[in-house]
Amino acid sequence: MVHLTKLAAAAVNRTSINAPYSAVAVKKLFETSNYVRKESLEIFFTPSWAVGAKRRSDGSILSKTFVSAAPCVGNFQKRFSSSSAVVDSSKSTIVPDFSHYKKDSGPNTSRAFTYLMVGATGALTAAGSKAFVTDFLANLSASADVLAMAKVEVDLAKIPEGKNLTIKWRGKPIFIRHRTPDEIAEANSVQLSELRDPQSDADRTQKPEWLVMLGVCTHLGCVPIGEAGDYNGWYCPCHGSHYDISGRIRKGPAPLNLEVPVYSFEDETKLVIG
Amino acid sequence: MTYRNSALEKYSRGVYRTIFRRNTVFLAGIFATAFAFEMAFDTVTDRWWDRMNKGKQWKDIKDRFSQ
């Protein structure tokens, strides 16, 4: 029974048997593999190499051999196509000449070329990123006409000594005072320790006789009044901040001195703010 | 092993040893190349732009409006 079972399994698996030739054999194989003809299995004759094997009383093989019990009934043919013949490959194979397609150079050149390509890619990427960032930031910054409009020129010759001038710069008032020597001396005489926002007069002016300040109270942004207040400087009417003759906060709620904008003297009588 | 172009092979070896071998040198070379490339690129493209727009730009007609 064992060899018949193996035969059936082999017929299903199609491993070690070849397709049978005759229609009868095909029919037999099909019926056997589908268990249609179970009783027909009994009539399969015993293979010649298995004849000598000892059998039990029920017909099963007692002594086993190393040979697989697949298929050697007449119509079945062992498959030999997987075995190959020994050939002299030096005579049978003609290798084409590939030298035309091969590189002239060796591995060092290939390596250097690869690194060169990597480096060139990196360099181009670096230049491109730098240009991208630069252009983007340049696009954000103010253009030349805006910058030109952002500056204000003041003719200082028109301001007599001891007088204030208020002009508009970038939408905000600018106080320019032509200070007298007495006022300069007064501004310098103040002790820094008694100031809320300690700043010497020299830090707040480029030329002592010209005081240039942003006319916005540092408390809540009102415009202080000139030549007023307890310190004879500026006085904010909103909440009562007193600034001295150097624009420093002396009394009231404001925390800081009046802001000094960026300015420069073009010549003796020309002031440029911005 | 010999190659048909052994001179190139020798040169490549030298280039690799001097530039590519140390990463710091390689990276410095990349940035230097990027800098040089950008300068050259900007110069060339600016010159080309000025040539294409000759006579239209302010610097070309500035002389006519002497102050």
UniProtKB/TrEMBL annotation, chain A:
GO terms for cellular component: mitochondrial inner membrane. Its EC number is 7.1.1.8. Gene3D superfamilies: Rieske [2Fe-2S] iron-sulphur domain (2.102.10.10), Ubiquinol cytochrome reductase, transmembrane domain (1.20.5.270). Keywords: 2Fe-2S, Disulfide bond, Electron transport, Iron, Iron-sulfur, Membrane, Metal-binding, Mitochondrion, Respiratory chain, Transmembrane, Transmembrane helix, Transport. It catalyses: a quinol + 2 Fe(III)-[cytochrome c](out) = a quinone + 2 Fe(II)-[cytochrome c](out) + 2 H(+)(out). Its main location: membrane. GO terms for molecular function: 2 iron, 2 sulfur cluster binding; metal ion binding; quinol-cytochrome-c reductase activity. It is found in: Membrane; Mitochondrion inner membrane. Its cofactor is [2Fe-2S] cluster. CDD domains: Rieske_cytochrome_bc1 (cd03470). It comes from the Eukaryota. Transmembrane segments: none annotated. InterPro entries: bc1_Rieske_TM_sf, Rieske_2Fe-2S, Rieske_2Fe-2S_sf, Rieske_Fe-S_prot, Rieske_Fe-S_prot_C, Rieske_TM, Ubiquinol_cyt_c_Rdtase_Fe-S-su. It holds the Pfam family UCR_TM. It is a single-pass membrane protein. PROSITE patterns: RIESKE. PANTHER family: CYTOCHROME B-C1 COMPLEX SUBUNIT RIESKE, MITOCHONDRIAL. This is Cytochrome b-c1 complex subunit Rieske, mitochondrial. It comes from Rhizophagus clarus.
TrEMBL record, chain B:
The keyword Transmembrane helix applies. It is found in: Mitochondrion inner membrane. Component of the ubiquinol-cytochrome c oxidoreductase, a multisubunit transmembrane complex that is part of the mitochondrial electron transport chain which drives oxidative phosphorylation. The complex plays an important role in the uptake of multiple carbon sources present in different host niches. It is a single-pass membrane protein. It comes from the Eukaryota. This is Complex III subunit 9. Belongs to the UQCR10/QCR9 family.
